[in-house]
Write a structure and sequence with these properties.
49% of the residues lie in helices and 10% in strands. The chain is mainly α. The chain is globular, with a radius of gyration of 21 Å. The termini are far apart. 40% of the residues are buried.
Length: 393
């Protein structure tokens, strides 16, 4: 494999807190080599009766990995870090490759990521590069796509121009403006680019166009588009699937969730309690100085790492992925307010937002949320909503 050029968010931080939470959340698929290595060392783990469930690590009834003892990984303790399956060593990083450019994102169902006070990613590039190389050699061998789809019409963007696009959008998201204004500017840029014949613009001409569009949007930012019925419909459908997975809802209650969320009437189960949706609609997001940066970090890390927006293996174009990211932000806001209602708090605080981001990331990363959502609504309707969906409910 040729040399990989790694791109990380230099100001993001992560250090493992050894909380063991990921050993409950992570669905670990094994290669034949990893499975054979653990099988050969079975005598080291007399307390583990069943190591595997098909091609995955087995779980206890509690959902914990069979190798978890307290907050300690038995494989790590008895065989060393290098013996752990690659997904365990790689969490919470994500990687997406185009040509030889690799963008590194983060998963927010990790307490260390949510805290954001660990070692800067810029100091971990050698470690991440080694993991990325192992990932692409073991999990996704072969050439990376040279062209990535920008929108649903099949318009492609070469990898070099995608880096230019990311630099401009990340510049907007990292600015000191209020979060709603930053999201509105990015949304406007994505939609304007969808109206341009991108095949005719590459390299310097593409960079010049982006700079002009960004300068225009930042100097005269459009007010956030008022949420219409389509925004509310898309968000209620997406949020209902996410909510059902978090609450493990089934049957009639699951079928009623989209209608109740759209109307904001009735109740929905969350854990062992029920959330009054009318009260939820009156509960604001508070502690803005702490909660807004959390939502901003999530948006920036996902867009930068292309975890959802434009990931080639996800089957989504860049523009549709951006809309999906807006729906995830809206769902996180919704769940944060739901947690506040259950606490009988007057507003959703930073801890509620952190918990909601963990929930959204968990179901999106590991439980096939997008595939479930495809059943509910054609993905083409992602072209009909944008940043308004993030504040629709």
């Amino acid at each position: 494999m040729t040399t990989l050029r790694l791109h990380v968010l230099a100001d993001e931080r992560f250090t493992c807190t050894q909380c063991g939470r990921c050993c409950h959340d992570l669905d670990v698929r094994l290669t034949a080599a990893e499975k054979g290595r653990l099988e050969a060392a079975r005598d080291l783990f007399p307390e583990v009766s069943e190591m595997f469930a098909g091609d995955r690590l087995a779980r206890r009834q509690s959902g914990a990995c069979v190798f978890l003892e307290g907050t300690r990984c038995l494989v790590h303790a008895r065989m060393g870090l290098a013996a752990k399956p690659l997904p365990c060593r790689f969490f919470p990083y994500t990687v997406v490759r185009a040509d030889d450019e690799v963008r590194v994102g983060l998963r927010f169902n990790c307490q260390g990521v949510l805290r954001g006070d660990g070692q800067p990613l810029s100091e971990q590039t050698a470690q991440i590069a080694g993991l990325a190389r192992a990932y692409y050699e073991e999990r996704e061998p072969g050439p990376a796509p040279a062209l990535l789809s920008f929108d649903g019409r099949g318009i492609g963007v070469v990898a070099a121009d995608l880096e230019i696009l990311h630099a401009e959008l990340d510049g907007v998201l990292s600015s000191p403006r209020p979060l709603a204004e930053r999201l509105t500017i990015v949304d406007a840029l994505v939609r304007r680019l969808g109206q341009v014949r991108l095949r005719k613009l590459e390299g310097a001409r593409f960079a010049e166009l982006l700079a002009v569009l960004r300068k225009h949007e930042e100097s005269t930012p459009s007010p956030p588009r008022r949420a219409g019925w389509m925004d509310r419909l898309l968000l209620s459908l997406y949020a209902s699937v996410c909510w059902q997975l978090v609450a493990a809802a089934r049957g009639r209650a699951a079928r009623a969730a989209p209608i109740r969320l759209y109307r904001m009437r009735g109740t929905l189960a969350l854990g062992d309690a029920h959330v009054d949706l009318a009260r939820l609609s009156r509960t604001p997001i508070g502690e803005v100085a702490r909660s807004e940066p959390l939502l901003g970090r999530f948006a920036r890390a996902k867009l930068f790492g292309r975890s959802y927006a434009g990931r080639p293996t996800g089957g989504l174009s860049f523009a549709r992925g951006w809309t999906l990211l807006c729906l995830q932000l809206g769902t996180a806001r919704l769940l944060a307010r739901a947690h506040a209602v259950l606490r009988e708090a007057p507003f959703a605080g930073a801890e509620d937002v952190a918990r909601a981001l963990h929930d959204v990331e968990d179901v999106a990363s590991h439980r096939g949320l997008l595939d479930l959502w495809r059943v509910r609504l054609p993905l083409g309707l992602l072209d009909r909503a944008g940043v308004a969906a993030a504040i629709a409910l």
